[in-house]
Amino acid sequence: MQHRILVIDDNQDVVKALKLLFLLNDIDCDGATSPEQGLEMLKTSSYDLVIQDMNFSLDTTSGVEGKALYQDIRQLNSDLPIILLTAWGNLEMAVELIKDGAADYLEKPWREEKLLASVNQLMEMYRLEKAQFKQQKQSLARTTKLADKFDLAGLVYADPAMLSLLEVATQVAHSDAPILITGPNGAGKEKIAEVIVANSPYKEAPFIKVNAGALPADLIEAELFGVVSGAYTGATKSRIGRFEAADGGTLFLDEIGNLPLSGQQKLLRVLQTGEFEPVGSSQTKKVKVRVISATNAELSKAILQGQFREDLYYRLNMIELSLPSLTERPEDIIPLAEHFIGEGKQLSSGAIHTLKRYNWPGNVRELQNVIGRAKLLAQGNIIEPSDLGINIKQSSSAATSEFSAQDIRAALSSHDGNVTHAAKSLGLSRQAMYRRMDKFGIER
Question: Which candidate, 148, 183, 143, 141, places its Cα nearest to that of 159?
Fold first, then answer.
């Protein structure tokens, strides 16, 4: 799709020069020679970027007219990128507008290569932001519909991948079908199980959770099915097992992939028939239990290696929900972090960027621990990158999340041009900050 620019400058020669420059670079460009004409064109046509002068009256150098035009454009479109053309006399006004959200400023006479680089970068960013906004609007409508219709058990999320998973989870929640939730450790598999139960016919019935992988091999049968007094040394009194405790409700078997083969065989029978005998008893008991299981293991691989029963896998896996890692649902990172922070503190822009760049091998659980530590270490109400205590590795996922020219300028503006303080707020060294300033042509 061809980009489209509007140039607003009272100097006809400037308009003609810029239109020719962009024409030679396959960019559609229109021109206006007054603020009034420019605003009218913005009302009737769609543009990806505006380049505007700062003065329109003869012998005027204050930049006040440019500021008024900038604000009028913002009233029409709050997101449209605006590049300011400035002369030495109104540079201070341009810097003020950069703080207010202008995309860039260029001094007259401009350098063509620098102008083209800035224009191409800004228009591509604007195109992506518009597409992202459309997608976010659609996701918001789906999210609102989901929240209105279902109980999400306090789950915090924003990523489309998580939305898609929740739509399936709430859809199958009403059935009795066994559900297998797969995903890495710490990603929130138990929380998904809670959402399923909250929207099932069993939401008021018992909901029993057990870490199947943590059960000692010699006690698995007693834990799951109960034991009668005197069944073995140490069994001084009878007690019911997890299946009986969950009768009429839901049993959540976490880390099912770590269950020993002996335990898998006993589990298969009760899933098939609903029947079992407590340890030390010949009396058969029957229960009705909806089973939700979870694992971080690749069960298909475990089956090939003889470590997991194939018949049990198909019994547990009538419906599989695959929970993405936190890195695979990046839009969840900041909402979750802010949820863990609660009231009283907030993240700096640098801390937000650091959280987004990190790989999160420990997923949501690690994020919760990082935020808990940061809340204790933060000197004031603002959590800085240094408070997070995480080491950003130069991975492919980190490399795709780089600072833009606007990020750098915003940090410098908020710290009155102090490079050291601006760099710290972004989680950068001063040398790294200088490299980015040079990359974007930002004066030191």
Answer: 143
Compute the distance between CA of residue 255 and CA of residue 183 in angstroms, rounded to an integer.
10
> DSSP letters of 183-249?
--TTS-HHHHHHHHHHTSTTTTS-EEEEEGGGS-GGGHHHHHH-B-TTSSTT--S-B--HHHHTTTS
Per DSSP, 58 falls in state: T
Residue 401 pLDDT more than 50?
no
Weakest-pLDDT range from 159-173, 258-272, 283-297, 427-441: 427-441
Distance CA 347, CA 428 (A): 16
Rounded to an integer, what distance in angstroms lies between the CA atom of residue 140 and that of residue 143?
5
Residue 325 is given by DSSP the state P
DSSP state of 276: E
A 10 A CB-CB count for 385 gives 24
151-322 and 330-439, same CATH topology: no
The DSSP output letter for 279 is B
Cα separation, 23 vs 16, in Å, equals 10
Q: Which overall architecture, per CATH, does domain 151-322 show? A: 3-Layer(aba) Sandwich (3.40)
4-130 placed in CATH 3.40.50.2300: yes
Question: Residue 438 pLDDT more than 90?
Answer: no
Token pair recorded at residue 232: 């073995």
Amino acid at 356: K
Q: Which residue has the higher pLDDT, 131 or 209?
A: 209
Looking at 3.30.40.10, 1.10.1760.20, 1.10.8.60, 3.40.720.10, the CATH number of the domain 330-439 comes to: 1.10.8.60
Over residues 256-290, the pLDDT tens digits come to 998 888 888 889 999 999 999 888 888 899 999 99
| Mean pLDDT value of segment 23-38 | 94
